[in-house]
User: Fold these one by one.
Assistant:
Number 1:
Amino acid sequence: MKAQRTALILIIFLMAGATVLAQTISREEMIFLTAKWEGERFPDGRPKVPDDIVERMHHVTIEEVWGVLRNEGFHNQFEGNWQPIHEEVAVVGRALTAQYMPNRPDVADQIKQRGEKEGRIGNTNSWPIDMLSKGDVYVADGFGKIVDGTLIGDNLGNSIFAKSGNGVVFNASSRDLEGLAEIEGFNAFVKGWHPSFLQEVMLSGLNVPIRMGAATVLPGDIVVAKREGVVFIPAHLAEKVVVTSEVIRLRDLFGITRLKEGKYTPGQIDSKWSAEIEKDFSKWLKDHIDDLPVPKAQIQELLKKRTW
């Protein structure tokens, strides 16, 4: 009888836990969905790509990311046609996701009531902001809504930047363009701008897998938003993307340098390098290690792996 009572209490506890987590996903589910990530995680299970990798990601081009992801079999990680505040200000960081859907009153009321019980404050579009930490990028699927689909204005924009030091990517719109533009270092990649307020929209998921146009995004993905568009990098491929980009950058710089010097022809540089050129490249890396636009430690690591 005691064992049965214990089992019943456990079942009730698990059911209650499932109710609390219904709008998000459990840590176990997060780990399951991002199983290829073997590094540090946030308390909720979201992959925590190291700050060093995130910082180096600022120098990666969209094309470089695209090439690495395609080679790894990831064909649905890019979305274009954005309207950023500043074309020249990149947004790079770890994705914290939110999913919005057209409003359905009965469901929306349930979500709001549960949020109040969980201690969430304010309108539902502020809840993801409360969860942000430094380096996060607030990524939201607002189903492309422009009129009455403005997820933030300048007040929430200031709050986002204060908490994350970063910008946002919304498959929706925003308002208060002039006010948001005054937040130094902040940028928003959105699908449009409109003076209306957010209406007939409900928050249906926090830190869950979402669709951003043609891309699938998981919490903890690394976001790289630049003029060409936005790419979402699975956490377990972030370091490979960075290292590959750095190697390409060094090889391009070496090739351009040698072409200007007239040491090699364009045909030699634009085709598979000979052993002689590869050897010259290694020597050039050693000779210029303190002056190159890649961290010295990374060049040293690259040289360790080279056999010429």
Number 2:
Amino acid sequence: MALFAPLNPPITDWRGQRVWLVGASTGIGAALARKLAAGGARVALSARGLDRLDALAAQCEGAVVAAMDVTRPGELERVRDRLLAQWGGLDLVILNAGTYQPLRAWELTPERIRKTLNINLLGVMDGVAAVVPGMLERGRGAIAIVASVAGYGGLPNAATYGPSKAALINFSETLYMDLAPRGLGVHLICPGFVATPLTAQNDFHMPALITAEQAADEIMAGFARGEFETHFPKRFTRFLKLLQCLPRRLYFPLIRRATGL
């Protein structure tokens, strides 16, 4: 492999691509669904809220609505089987379902811990388990996992969210090493602060905040470049990556100063 060659096959022509988007009803997922449909992709929209999915489908020509809850056993497999019967295969599965609740260490409870991990981590891992065997059998396909820059290092207010996203980053790296040699694409997506209903809960300044539409544009550009990790906005994410190179005695006070928490 050439040193600077794309780590995944670039996706530049979306016409006819069969894309299952899990976590599509609001925010980044909804914006991305509109971009994909506008590019000619055949899009299946999944999330828990049927009304919001129906409203989104009206903006995405030919979209298939498949409401489901990733935390309920058998739901991913049920929708997968429906789409395979309808389409005959899946070219790209985007696992974007997630939740966020600002939490400090003293606010942790078993219920809050499990709610976050069941959706953000186990729901994604179950999604991969549902689709990878079929992709390997067909010898083609790609998976995209939406994590977060909150997974790069510990941050205040992210006692459950940050660890769940850190696990997704590790999981995506492992998937790439296992699946890329067998012909499958693996894409890791790490957004910074994006204006969505989830981040609207934050009561602190969010640096380099961008819109969901801008985030979708960045993700589409990452697919076109064949990137393994698409992170944005770069002016913010590169700074966070740099912080991880610092000794912890410098990292902790810098984060406290930057967040005010």
Number 3:
Amino acid sequence: MITVYGYPKTRTNRVTWMLEELGVDYKYHFVDLMKGEGLSKSYRAINPSGKVPSLADDDLILTESAAILTYLGDKYGAAPLLPKPGSALRGTHDQWLCFAISELEQPLWTIGKHKFALPKERRVVEVFETAAWEFQKALALLSAGLGNKDYILGADFSAADILIGHTLFWGMSFKQPIEQENLVAYINRLKNRPARLSAIEKEEQAATSQ
């Protein structure tokens, strides 16, 4: 049985969304970050950073959301959710997966760190304007790459859309404007996917059952 260690409204949703798309059974282990459980000795034995998500599959433990998505897709899925390793489409898929982490998410996490994640004495509010500018630059690149396609690889939804979509929802929660018409339409296609809604519901249930 797969176990997902997570907390609602975090990167954990990328993993649960992927599992719901795959139709794979899993156990959700709620890590109460607000009570400091991420920094506990028991959880740091799983993820030394104290962050979520983490995934356990038999003896394997993974801690980076992009790596978890590709692992799950390779083991439990098939194209088009995750293209075949070594194919041209897989190369393009992984390019966008890396873009989501390195370009699209990075300025949002900068904002997050300097709003709430870093110790107060390490926060620098002056970075907010630059981070917002960086996010807009990444949005322009994403919009150009998406073009008139339904999803980032074309007509078919893939794991890269989970990572990109989750990051766009994160940007919206941070009140960053997303004005490109194709990105707005893309967000609307993603937000009501049954697998995403089911993942959110299960995460909330896990949190309220504590």
